[in-house]
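User: Fold this, then the next.

Assistant: Folding the first:
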Amino acid sequence: MAEITTDILLACADENRRGGIKSVYVINKDDITSFTASTVAGEYAYTAVTLSTTDDKFYEIEGELEGKSYSSEGSRENGSIAYETTLEVFCPKMEKTKAFGINEYVESCGLVVIFETYNKETADNKAFVLGFDEVMGKDASVDAIANEVLEGELQGQNGYTVTFAGKQAQIVREFVGTIVTNSGGTVSFGS
């Protein structure tokens, strides 16, 4: 059982927070060896990720501005806590290249996601790890499903909503570190 040792206090920066997800990075769960949990007292974060090989990398899925969202719902049953997690990304315009990449996500055997927010305390935005925790490890990975929409109106919706859904034993941890991506080289997060 964890002892309570931390106050949760609001600062001025908390009152001026931002919502919104800036970027989403996806990798197969089998390409992850481990995440390194912070050893700093009072920090609930990962400070590094170790990949299985040097060829492994994260892949970015871009979505429309204000077309990405994350939520989780916690429950307690039989003395255990679990969180149902959902990350949605709307990718505009149905077409073959996006369909191919989205289908790779859907057919994977589990994914780990790092999603970057618009919040920052230093030069780097805050990011969070979805699909991995200290209790379940890679068993907390998420699965992807896709919905397609092509409305009848000329100015109607046209695109894919990709949903990454899963179950974790802990709330998502902040990621304070760097990852190697397929499209952008090294990306840094956190403070």
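Now the next one, as you asked:
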Amino acid sequence: MGVEPDNTPSPVAPRRLDVRVVLALVACAVVAGRMAGVVREQQNFGLDFGVFHAGGALIRSSGYAAAYDPARFSRYFESNYYPSLSSGETVSHFISTPTFGWFAQGLAVIPFSASLSMWLVAGTVLVVPAVRLLELPARWIPIVLIAPAMVANIALAQTGPFVLLVFVTIHRFAREERWIPAGLVAGLLILKPALALGWGIWWLVQARRCWQALAAAILSAAVLSVPTVLGGFSAWRSFFDAMRYRVDVEAAWSQQSPSLPEFAKLLTPNSGSALTLVWWIVGFLTAALLIHLATRRWKGDAELLSGVAVVASVWASPHLLVYDTLVLLV
């Protein structure tokens, strides 16, 4: 006679509390509380979104040249958005691309307070699909929401959650070697081109493999830029004039940024704009070297190389502040 199988269900082991998750939450909460206190003291909550909104409003009323005029923008911004900043020279200038400026006009249709609230709600909600697309457990959602980079995004009402979702989507397509969709999504980074550095270098280094991604990214960026060139290239000329001025401004101060160019500027305070450009070039070359070495070591591993591209963007971007490091979640 055979032995009857024991169909008694085995007891379910109780779920253990993950100490690492608890420590991460506590650490993030402490940092988040401190950053919130700084924002409250300085009374500049939503400052960067105010810049976007003001830029869009000026473009709607007076054109791109007005938005990119540092003196005119500062007067408009301080008078209509943050009067407490009225202290002469300010670095609150509109330096986004005309493509972002075209998009910002839509933000300016809605009054500032309502638009800011909608922006913050949308950014918070987008963390959920970003975490799920990375196939992380649901417990990562609250961790990301109170991570220091996310708190900085909320405090300034920056673009971090939106950029994170773009990065995660590119990473997901690149991991599956679906180059055309990856490139089409990467073209969205024409809104913030400095963040596309790592992807661009990787796809150039492996151009034979990734040419479809490069072509799709160029096409996508070009289509998004069409509204800004319908009347000529005056918007882009104004933008590059503003960027030349910005190089001079940024040569004299260092941002809250982990990138190599910003760290190097800390070692050479109050240096001229020429040295700032040198640091930007050094950042680009070292990022290219990093990706070149990675492609030689892990030539066929698209998932790993995609992660290296994200790190390279944070390492070498000429304009990347602490809130943009949220993309390192990839």
